[in-house]
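Model it.
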Amino acid sequence: MRRSLFALLLALPAISMAAPTQEWTATYDAGGNYVDAATQALTDPAGNLVLGGTSHDGAGGADINVTLYDRADGSVIWEARMQAYDHTSDMAIDGLAWDNAGDILMAGRLLGCGTG
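Modeled.
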């Protein structure tokens, strides 16, 4: 038993050292020549990629954006954008997770308050 476990442990580093390959790329641009940045990532049970982050569209403050990308080709399956209550404050995403029902949970925060 110990010998087979030891041999398996020796083989694992060689397997994990395989060079990764890029399957697809995707670019997100909300417009307005502002920075859009993904800060959270996870996969769904089917292996599709969920990215969450901040997005500036040039209207008001930074919004939270969550997008699900198809694992095969990177096409957008769905996208959700959340603005601050006053449409001028900046929002930030702090975490993404799946619940037991298969729904995505997002935690975020308001970074500032508008004056109007």
